[in-house]
Specification:
Elements: H1 2-20, E1 24-26, E2 28-35, E3 40-47, E4 52-54, E5 57-66, E6 75-83, H2 92-96, E7 112-117, E8 131-139
Antiparallel strand pairs: 1-5, 2-3, 2-8, 4-5, 5-6, 6-7
Length: 173
């Protein structure tokens, strides 16, 4: 109970501080996942609405907000994390890229549902015996780059600049 009250007090303090900040909504979050058994950490990019399987966890990103660069850095992500059937994998890369795995049962409750803050990973943390997951940052997709414009040399005339009478191609009859 004391832990809950302390977390609530800290959370209310963050809400007051976050209220003064402005947040931009992003569609991707970078999460860091730690396998406590092997000691390996892996960065995972999760898009809103596209669940990702990591080991025996299914991570869903519901929303992600990032402060603008001119303000104090803060990322906040709303995550839902479910337990899944164990996945037999040989490497951490295989755990990250595993196919969609069904949850153990419909009665199986969520392991975590709530906001995680990059600046305070312990405030609202996933409690799991094997894995830790926390937010690193929220990002938006990179803008699409247009191809470089083609610039014609100044000494060559453009096809549109040649009068029809000087056209060297024979006309079909």
């Amino acid at each position: 109970m004391i832990r809950f009250l302390a977390a609530s007090a800290v959370g209310l303090g963050l809400i007051g501080a976050a209220h003064a900040a402005t947040f931009d909504q992003k569609n991707t979050a970078t999460l860091r996942a730690l396998d406590k058994i092997t000691g390996r950490s892996t960065d995972i990019d999760v898009k809103v609405g596209e669940p990702v399987v990591f080991g025996s966890l299914k991570v869903e990103l519901k929303a992600c907000y990032q402060t603008p660069p001119e303000e104090a850095p803060e990322s906040a992500a709303f995550l839902k994390i479910h337990s899944t059937q164990p996945v037999a994998v040989e490497t951490m890369d295989a755990a990250v890229s595993a196919d969609v795995v069904e949850t153990v049962s419909e009665e199986n409750p969520e392991l975590f549902s709530g906001w995680m803050y990059a600046s305070s990973p312990g405030l609202s943390a996933l409690e799991h015996p094997v894995y830790d997951i926390w937010v690193i940052r929220c990002t938006a997709p990179a803008p699409v780059k247009l191809p470089a414009p083609v610039i014609a040399p100044a000494d060559e005339p453009l096809l549109d600049d040649v009068p029809p009478s000087l056209d060297t191609e024979p006309t079909p009859e």
